[in-house]
């Protein structure tokens, strides 16, 4: 018996649905078209693949999708299309990201992916990617891989010759920089400082000597400590900007010097996400540090466990003085140690 297709049936009928007269008794209507199966006029039926239908014209691969850092309207049309088309969405906090997806009626499955489980998830995700799936990676806010999980997975995909596709959008430090009023010609994004005290001081010393604008992510409960340490190395007259809760209801930009910031936040702890920017070292600033200053810096680094050679290199990186002069001072004040000082001489 020849099976009539939906299209053939519609062509054979001469009426439209709105022309059917109203009936006193309800009738059961059996749908002739099943969206999950296409009927053919012969015995072969072509089963549709839901995931391939969903993917549309996106190529398989890992999509790094930037999401709003506060205001839900700060999401691109492309980001929404990718999130709707993906086979799975990797998210730091599925409950947090679920609110974003619910807001935009996105029903793509979520899979947790954060710093505590990324190593365990990597191989299973790579397997899905090698099977030509579309995997979207999002963070709680902003661009994945920027002080958030994602960079290691992207590296593994590149090594495995799997496509990594960025879907650009919101990024807290870029937003803060553009509105800061500080130089945007050159900048260094430091992010969160190391927790180790000596490593943190080393990083701040390097930043203090750079001419580029320095950008940090600072937890609100550590702001006072950060200002104390940075003003000691950058100097209290260096201009700075605190950008807080960017794009959110309580967005705040505070501008002044590091000295002013110490006073302003000595008895006030701001809430929320903080991006802190410090202007670069003026190029015209070429002060020659005194021998006492150099000795104090060398001594502080050595007392924190650094070798003499490492201390010399770090002090030289933050000074306009030649490395050989600092090396000579180190020998006089702290004596020669067999720890690689020969490398400093060269």
UniProtKB/TrEMBL annotation:
One of its GO terms (biological process) is rRNA processing. The keyword Endoplasmic reticulum does not apply. GO terms for molecular function: methyltransferase activity. Keywords: Cytoplasm, Methyltransferase, rRNA processing, S-adenosyl-L-methionine, Transferase. Pfam families: TP_methylase. The keyword Methyltransferase applies. Residues 62-261 form the Tetrapyrrole methylase domain. This is Tetrapyrrole methylase domain-containing protein. The lineage of its organism: Eukaryota, Viridiplantae, Streptophyta, Embryophyta, Tracheophyta.
